[in-house]
């Protein structure tokens, strides 16, 4: 009888077995309680802690944290597979094993991100004060100083890059989706793909070469940095808005045509509003992609310690370049430079986060209303 | 406003493929004409040529003439946009604009064309069109809700309201009830009966009972086989088509012996 073979595991299964004499449900099988996976995880953790504590006691040295975590993962996988196999059968056992694997993969993928964020947060808060946001680095050699010039530079250059890239990218994707046929459309798609793969330093060199043709060699301008960024941004905008425009059902275009609406008005008033949320998200992702670029800005916009609000004159600082340059050339008071670099990195991350947050809000506001 | 449609020797091509061959028929104003026939026989394609909507599909082209009260749709210098403003169309699947409210959907034909309209005139137009589509009583308290919040049948009547809001001369309907339940279908059939007094209506349907219920005249289309062009087999009063068809294929089709 199945009831007796499963007897040792009955303690683990949460539903009570059917009373004696009553027919058992043919669809029912043993089930692990909700707490069991967590308990197994705890047991694995305790065992591996104990093992590595023994190692430490035997050989001396530090406690091996990484080893303990890896052993916990492996033990947890084996234990949960065996337990589920005994109580629930082979299908559920596989399910639990794969669940464990997927969760581990997720944690492994997340670990560097969280580690990075914690590191930046802990080191960046040292100098994350009002002075950081109210002063430039002009005439500062040791402590003090701020990154206002870099924040302003980043915002101005990324802003100009966005102003250049969004119209170009959006109009290109509209051409590809609504008008493009044949060889020209295929060529554009191909070159956009090629542009996606351009190394960012090449974009910086391109912008530098372009502006040095006009202003002579050695030119460093904020607007040159913006052009370099837009070279990187345009393909991302084209790709994401193209996907979004293709998602708009053809029926909506036909509905508008059948009302006697010309094609350009249909695109402007039906297709774009319907896909606006997705396009906004895509643009924000593109901004997030370029706002952290260092190399092209270093080449095209240079770096400076002074405030510069004018993108058309003189060098312009940006946050990534500021972080890079204060790390590379630490002055007399090295710690002050490092603290400022970390604080600037934190500011950059917060700016990107704020942009993503705005993008989500905008996407929610503009997304098609579904009523229910 | 209601106009006569005269089709003369019309061929429709998709690139090189001849989809509909040699159709000639005349549709009287203030009448309902049904197109019936098996799938793929070119009914919908032909219907779309009556307001040049087939041009949305790349490679589609037409030979022959479609005269609306004597004006050739395919004459030199004809703007398809102007054609579609006067010949409305309702599609198989209800397709209200998802970004717009019920009221905005009804007024879409005006607002999308950037025409100015006063608030009171817009209110009147919305009410008149929704009443015309038998939808006013169901939605008058929630005109600002999104159009997609309505049921399928209501959405389809919303699309009809949207189509008649631009006061077209002719209303083309491409299987307007095929996605709807019998109750909603009945509502739309009643509506077609009422709209007949003002518009020339052409309806494509797979439902022969529907054709016999709503239409005055019926056209039967058929194809000889896959890859062959669709042809107009028989065109006559609905009663005649369903009781004493002159062509054997029509009789087979309407009596359910094939198709």
UniProtKB/TrEMBL annotation, chain A:
<keyword id="KW-0812">Transmembrane</keyword>
<dbReference type="Pfam" id="PF00528">
    <property type="entry name" value="BPD_transp_1"/>
</dbReference>
<feature type="transmembrane region" description="Helical">
    <location>
        <begin position="98"/>
        <end position="121"/>
    </location>
</feature>
<feature type="transmembrane region" description="Helical">
    <location>
        <begin position="188"/>
        <end position="211"/>
    </location>
</feature>
<dbReference type="GO" id="GO:0035435">
    <property type="term" value="P:phosphate ion transmembrane transport"/>
</dbReference>
<dbReference type="GO" id="GO:0005886">
    <property type="term" value="C:plasma membrane"/>
</dbReference>
<feature type="transmembrane region" description="Helical">
    <location>
        <begin position="341"/>
        <end position="363"/>
    </location>
</feature>
<feature type="transmembrane region" description="Helical">
    <location>
        <begin position="147"/>
        <end position="176"/>
    </location>
</feature>
<keyword id="KW-0813">Transport</keyword>
<keyword id="KW-1133">Transmembrane helix</keyword>
<dbReference type="InterPro" id="IPR000515">
    <property type="entry name" value="MetI-like"/>
</dbReference>
<dbReference type="InterPro" id="IPR005672">
    <property type="entry name" value="Phosphate_PstA"/>
</dbReference>
<feature type="region of interest" description="Disordered">
    <location>
        <begin position="1"/>
        <end position="22"/>
    </location>
</feature>
<comment type="similarity">
    <text>Belongs to the binding-protein-dependent transport system permease family. CysTW subfamily.</text>
</comment>
<protein>
    <recommendedName>
        <fullName>Phosphate transport system permease protein PstA</fullName>
    </recommendedName>
</protein>
<feature type="transmembrane region" description="Helical">
    <location>
        <begin position="270"/>
        <end position="291"/>
    </location>
</feature>
<dbReference type="InterPro" id="IPR051408">
    <property type="entry name" value="Phosphate_transprt_permease"/>
</dbReference>
<keyword id="KW-0472">Membrane</keyword>
<keyword id="KW-0592">Phosphate transport</keyword>
<keyword id="KW-1003">Cell membrane</keyword>
<feature type="transmembrane region" description="Helical">
    <location>
        <begin position="63"/>
        <end position="86"/>
    </location>
</feature>
<feature type="domain" description="ABC transmembrane type-1">
    <location>
        <begin position="151"/>
        <end position="359"/>
    </location>
</feature>
TrEMBL record, chain B:
<keyword id="KW-1278">Translocase</keyword>
<dbReference type="InterPro" id="IPR027417">
    <property type="entry name" value="P-loop_NTPase"/>
</dbReference>
<dbReference type="InterPro" id="IPR003439">
    <property type="entry name" value="ABC_transporter-like_ATP-bd"/>
</dbReference>
<dbReference type="GO" id="GO:0016020">
    <property type="term" value="C:membrane"/>
</dbReference>
<dbReference type="Pfam" id="PF00005">
    <property type="entry name" value="ABC_tran"/>
</dbReference>
<protein>
    <submittedName>
        <fullName>Phosphate ABC transporter ATP-binding protein</fullName>
    </submittedName>
</protein>
<dbReference type="GO" id="GO:0005524">
    <property type="term" value="F:ATP binding"/>
</dbReference>
<dbReference type="InterPro" id="IPR005670">
    <property type="entry name" value="PstB-like"/>
</dbReference>
<dbReference type="InterPro" id="IPR003593">
    <property type="entry name" value="AAA+_ATPase"/>
</dbReference>
<keyword id="KW-0813">Transport</keyword>
<keyword id="KW-0547">Nucleotide-binding</keyword>
<keyword id="KW-0067">ATP-binding</keyword>
<dbReference type="InterPro" id="IPR017871">
    <property type="entry name" value="ABC_transporter-like_CS"/>
</dbReference>
<feature type="domain" description="ABC transporter">
    <location>
        <begin position="5"/>
        <end position="248"/>
    </location>
</feature>
<dbReference type="GO" id="GO:0035435">
    <property type="term" value="P:phosphate ion transmembrane transport"/>
</dbReference>
<dbReference type="GO" id="GO:0016887">
    <property type="term" value="F:ATP hydrolysis activity"/>
</dbReference>
<dbReference type="GO" id="GO:0005315">
    <property type="term" value="F:phosphate transmembrane transporter activity"/>
</dbReference>
């Amino acid at each position: 009888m199945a009831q007796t073979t499963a007897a040792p595991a009955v303690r683990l299964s949460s539903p009570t077995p059917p009373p004696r004499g009553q027919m058992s449900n043919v669809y029912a099988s043993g089930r692990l309680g909700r707490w069991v996976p967590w308990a197994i995880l705890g047991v694995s953790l305790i065992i591996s802690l104990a093992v590595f504590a023994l190692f430490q006691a035997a050989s001396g040295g530090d406690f091996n944290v990484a080893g303990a975590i890896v052993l916990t993962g492996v033990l947890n996988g084996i234990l949960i597979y065996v337990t589920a196999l005994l109580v629930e059968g082979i299908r559920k056992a596989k399910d639990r094993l794969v669940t464990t694997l997927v969760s581990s993969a997720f944690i492994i993928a997340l670990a560097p991100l969280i580690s990075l964020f914690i590191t930046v947060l802990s080191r960046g808060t040292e100098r994350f004060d009002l002075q950081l946001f109210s002063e430039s680095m002009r005439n500062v050699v040791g402590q003090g100083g701020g990154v206002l010039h870099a924040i302003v530079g980043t915002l101005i250059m990324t802003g100009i890059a966005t102003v250049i890239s969004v119209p170009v990218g959006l109009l290109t994707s509209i051409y590809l989706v609504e008008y493009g046929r044949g060889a020209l459309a295929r060529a554009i798609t191909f070159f956009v793909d090629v542009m996606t793969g351009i190394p960012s330093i090449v974009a910086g060199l391109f912008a530098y070469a372009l502006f040095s043709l006009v202003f002579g060699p050695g030119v460093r301008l904020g607007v040159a940095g913006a052009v370099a960024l837009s070279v990187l941004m345009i393909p991302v905008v084209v790709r994401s808005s193209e996907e979004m425009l293709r998602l708009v059902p053809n029926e909506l275009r036909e509905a508008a045509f059948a009302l006697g609406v010309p094609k350009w008005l249909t695109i402007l008033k039906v297709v774009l509003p319907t896909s606006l949320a997705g396009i906004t998200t895509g643009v924000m992702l593109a901004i997030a992609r370029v706002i952290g670029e260092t190399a092209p800005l270093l080449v095209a916009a240079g770096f400076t310690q002074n405030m510069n609000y004018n993108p058309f004159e003189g060098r312009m600082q940006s946050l990534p370049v500021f972080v890079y340059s204060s790390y590379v050339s630490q002055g007399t008071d090295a710690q002050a430079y490092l603290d400022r670099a970390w604080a600037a990195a934190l500011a950059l991350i917060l700016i990107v986060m704020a942009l993503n947050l705005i993008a989500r809000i905008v996407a929610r506001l503009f997304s098609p209303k579904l009523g229910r | 406003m209601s106009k006569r449609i005269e089709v003369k020797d019309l061929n429709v091509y998709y690139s090189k493929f001849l989809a509909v061959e040699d159709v000639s028929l005349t549709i009287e104003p203030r009448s309902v004409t049904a197109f019936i026939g098996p799938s793929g026989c070119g009914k919908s394609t032909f219907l779309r040529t009556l307001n040049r909507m087939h041009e949305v599909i790349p490679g589609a082209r037409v030979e022959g003439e479609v005269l609306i009260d004597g004006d050739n749709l395919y004459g030199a210098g004809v703007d398809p946009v102007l054609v579609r403003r006067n010949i409305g169309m309702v599609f198989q699947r209800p397709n209200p604009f998802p970004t717009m409210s019920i009221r905005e959907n009804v007024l879409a034909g005006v607002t999308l064309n950037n025409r100015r309209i006063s608030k009171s005139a817009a209110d009147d137009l919305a009410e008149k069109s929704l009443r015309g589509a038998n939808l006013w009583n169901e939605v008058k308290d929630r005109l600002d809700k999104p159009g997609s919040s309505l049921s399928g049948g209501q959405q389809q009547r919303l699309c009809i309201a949207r189509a008649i809001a631009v006061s077209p001369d002719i209303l083309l309907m491409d299987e307007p009830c095929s996605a709807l339940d019998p109750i909603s279908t009945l509502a739309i059939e009643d509506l077609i009966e009422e709209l007949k007094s003002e518009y020339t209506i052409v309806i494509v349907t797979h439902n022969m009972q529907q054709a016999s219920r709503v239409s005055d005249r019926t056209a039967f289309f058929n194809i000889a086989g896959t890859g062959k062009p669709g042809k107009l087999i028989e065109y006559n009063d609905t009663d005649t088509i369903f009781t004493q068809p002159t062509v054997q294929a029509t009789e087979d089709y309407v009596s359910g012996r094939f198709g």
